[in-house]
Design brief:
The complex is a heterodimer of chains A (111) and B (285). Chain A has 111 residues and is mostly helical. Chain A contains three helices and no strands. The longest helix of chain A has 29 residues, at 13-41. The relative contact order of chain A is 0.06. Chain B is 73% helix and 0% strand. With 285 residues, chain B is an all-alpha fold. The chains are: A mainly alpha (111), B mainly alpha (285).
Chain lengths: 111, 285
């Protein structure tokens, strides 16, 4: 069982740890910039569907950057990614189902 | 063994003692976060469905929300995630001093986020009369953001415990009262957070009502003298308790504990990334 231990970081652990610091700072700056662009985006005079799409894409990019870099999924075993995405897909699927089933008319509060 | 000698000796991404090669603590945390995705997915979709029906007399969400405040708290939470990542990086190198500094900064940013949320909730309830019971928009909004805020508060408490845990002595017999000392450390830390938060929020209200004039500040200082003195005393106590008395029983081997806590904290951040877009930005389109 101990044989697969070698490929993970052995050989260049120090340089990897050094570069991680740079990566974290660069990603944090990128996330801050994307957040700024998101705020500007809502005031742009474009079609609503286009703005919603842009905002969803920006959110997804931020989300993926955080889980793969800050949460180390990029460097961890793929099983962690699989496990988390099972929950994510179930959660996203539930959201999609609820939003599809209960549109505006169906969610009107009772008098 | 010195911490320098240990650097690079532990593989933080593989545990040969488990059948999956993943440390059990990390596996449990990922499973929990996966389940929490479903929990927040339901809360967010409930809000998206019911936000379309505010009562006739209630203000529109766009008139209630403050994009400036929410953007600021979003930025603060993103920066807290950066500091948490740096904390994990520090302990993986066995750098205890850097770990403590990063944890303290993360706690500080987490408290700012919570303070912004308390201010926002106060504003919604007392200025805009949107409560959890008087409209369906209020119900879904406060339930969703309140649940997220509770997650942040739990995260801050966990960070605080980890910070104090890093002061556990390597040889407890040399400092027999270390446990009571750590309990006092936690109490002082909580006192510092609550009193500082209270003073800052009261100051914000006072300045909003009377402006930033010296007269307003003096009146505020007189009215809140006890809270100000308590906050300063707790902060001074924190500085005193943080003085190094090593060696400590906390190092690279504890990196998995810090990493697990980091996963939770980053998850709170990614949930907010979704809430910021789905709950706040969507109202401005």
């Amino acid at each position: 069982m101990s044989a697969p231990a070698a490929p993970a970081t052995t050989g260049q652990p120090h340089s990897l740890e050094e570069s991680k610091f740079q990566i974290y700072v660069q990603i944090a700056m990128l996330l801050a910039v994307i957040t700024g662009i998101e705020i500007v985006t809502v005031y742009l005079p474009f079609a609503r569907w286009l703005l919603v799409t842009v905002l969803v894409v920006f959110s997804a990019v931020k989300f993926l950057f955080v889980i793969f870099f800050f949460m180390h999924l990029r460097w961890d075993k793929p099983f962690c990614t699989v496990l988390f995405f099972i929950g994510l897909i179930l959660g996203g699927g539930t959201m999609f189902a609820l939003l599809t089933l209960f549109g505006m008319k169906e969610s009107v509060p009772l008098p | 063994m010195s911490s320098t000698a240990a650097v690079g000796a532990i593989d933080h991404h593989h545990d040969p003692t488990t059948s999956t090669g993943i440390p059990n603590k990390k596996l449990v945390m990922w499973a929990f976060l996966a389940s929490d995705c479903m929990f927040f997915g339901c809360l967010i979709s409930t809000h998206l469905i019911y936000r379309l029906h505010p009562p006739a007399s209630a203000p529109q969400a766009r008139q209630v929300f403050s994009i400036e405040l929410t953007s600021f708290s979003t930025f603060i939470l993103l920066m807290s995630s950066l500091m948490m990542a740096l904390a994990v990086n520090a302990i993986q190198k066995g750098n205890l001093k850097s770990l403590r500094a990063s944890l303290l900064t993360t706690i500080f940013f987490g408290c700012i986020f919570l303070g912004c949320q308390v201010y926002e909730f106060n504003n919604f309830v007392f200025e805009h009369h949107m409560t959890i019971t008087n409209s369906i928009l209020g119900t879904t909004f406060f339930t969703l953001t309140g649940t997220h805020g509770t997650h942040v508060a739990i995260g801050v408490f966990w960070l605080l415990l980890m910070y104090v845990r890093s002061f556990q002595p390597k040889d407890p017999e040399t400092r027999p009262a270390w446990f009571l000392g750590n309990v006092a450390h936690i109490a002082v830390f909580i006192g510092a957070i609550l009193l500082s938060g209270y003073v800052l929020i009261e100051l914000a209200w006072a300045m909003q009502a009377g402006g930033a004039s010296p007269g307003t500040l003096l009146t505020f200082a007189k009215a809140q003298a006890l809270a100000i003195v308590g906050a300063v005393a707790c902060l001074a106590g924190l500085v005193r308790l943080a003085k190094t008395r090593g060696p400590y029983d906390f190092g690279e081997a504890n990196a998995i504990d810090v990493e697990m806590m980091g996963l939770y904290w980053h998850f709170v951040d990614i949930v907010w990334i979704v809430i910021f877009t789905a709950v706040y930005l969507l109202e401005y389109l």
